[in-house]
Amino acid sequence: MDRTRFFVRVSAIFALIGAFMGSHMAGGGGYQLSAIHAHILVVGWLSLFAFAIFYKVFSIPKHSKLATFHVWSSFIGVFGLTSGMWLYYTQPVAGMETFNTIFFIVGGTVLLFAFICFAIMVFVHGALISED
Asked: How far apart (Å, rounded) are the C-alpha atoms in residues 5 and 18?
């Protein structure tokens, strides 16, 4: 799998969703979903795009289990956090409050593990991260 291409494509989708949400909120004058909008843009667009640049600039081994875990936990975490936030704040289906809360928490926790994994990876593959 091309990690850079994957992250750039997914980040582009989150950028479109975030921009559309922002445009819709501004046009309608309702800012109730601004926290979700901000998280979609920050963790969905900005963080995933930054990870894409990281993999493009530095020669992290293609078969690194740490990198593979990072890629998938980032994707699952961002999707889980942002959709969980939407479910939690909008409560689109009555009686699903507990599920929505758990979905939100699990998504955020998976994303936290992705960031922890990234920090570990930076030190494990530190010799590959250089200006040379």
From this structure: 20
**Tens digit of each residue's pLDDT (9 = 90 or more) over 87-103:** 999 999 999 999 999 99
Q: Which residues of 64-98 are buried (b: 16+ CB within 10 A; e: fewer)?
A: eeebeebbebbbbbbbbbbbbbbbbeeeeeeeeee
Mark the ranges of the chain whose per-residue pLDDT is less than 70: none
Rounded to two decimals, what is the model's pTM?
0.91
User: Rg of the Cα trace of the chain?
Assistant: 16
| 8-state DSSP, 124 | H
Give the span between the Cα atoms of 77 and 74, in whole angstroms: 5
d(CA 130, CA 132): 5
Q: Going by C-beta distance under 8 Å and a sequence separation of 6 or more, which residues neighbour residue 113?
A: 73, 77
